[in-house]
């Protein structure tokens, strides 16, 4: 058995391994839907489900004759019928009712893709958490207890509170859109009154001056020569990793000592002031780029492709271990930027502006750093 993102092209190319009589390839979109590929070459779409505690399956059609979309539509209809027969009080679960899967896959995702840069995170959340639990239900049939059971199931599987809360936020927003778009039969938002679970496990790390020295020494020895520029750039600017990896020379304003970030998490253009240290770093990089990467407009081009790095995880992981900080995340460099500012006496408002936070509450996590600094300051008062 294997589970893949099925497409029409993938299905038509499936071949049964010679040592097997048949094998099953499950769909990622609809739980229980799979293609049964036989040694003879025959293929059928089938649906596996559980009824009265017994695992069963049904054949939906020949995979050479019906399309994947038709198989998915048939699977949705059969699952709704099965659920309706097991819960006759839910009259809204007829075959014509819009299911949770149909709404979030066919309506919600196409909409958020038009404006939301992080739509991929939503897609993953929908596929991995919402559809397996609620996908076959009609939108109008979902009740708060259904979502509460999903939350409890995720807690029992040790999912992080942040993951569960993001799922709740997505459901609330999805149902808000569904109400706005007047989905038939829908009258209330079942996720509206469910509270987020308490999240006390926020991990925030800050570089000490000693750790900063050790980290810089490690990145200078990295097999990825770009890392020795990327890491200090992140510390100097407090930028997010993706913002830095996509940065271009055209967005550096040398006269105003400023860097324009055209695509931010909030979707707004942000201008980051560049310190003397950042400008000196960029000056060295520009001289190096003129010799090593002519024509490239990227600050940190991948030397093999000339495009932005997709990932720098392995070189980063090696460097942080060599520096003695194996748990340090790249995003912690952004936290360190903020901690350096707060401990130098800068206000939280200034930190908010420099980090590009839309809400001061996001920045307030650094308030304890200022209190620590003030506590240290009052220690100089001694009466003996």
TrEMBL record:
It comes from the Bacteria. Signal peptide: none annotated. Pfam families: Arm-DNA-bind_3, Phage_integrase. The keyword DNA-binding applies. GO terms for molecular function: DNA binding. InterPro entries: DNA_brk_join_enz (IPR011010), Integrase-like_cat_sf (IPR013762), Integrase_catalytic (IPR002104), Integrase_DNA-bd_sf (IPR038488), Integrase_DNA_bind_dom (IPR025166), Integrase_recombinase_N (IPR010998), Phage_Integrase (IPR050808). The keyword Cell membrane does not apply. Gene3D superfamilies: 1.10.150.130, Integrase, DNA-binding domain (3.30.160.390), Intergrase catalytic core (1.10.443.10). Keywords: DNA integration, DNA recombination, DNA-binding. Residues 202-379 form the Tyr recombinase domain. One of its GO terms (biological process) is DNA recombination. Belongs to the 'phage' integrase family. This is Tyrosine-type recombinase/integrase. It comes from Limnohabitans radicicola. The lineage of its organism: Bacteria, Pseudomonadati, Pseudomonadota, Betaproteobacteria, Burkholderiales.
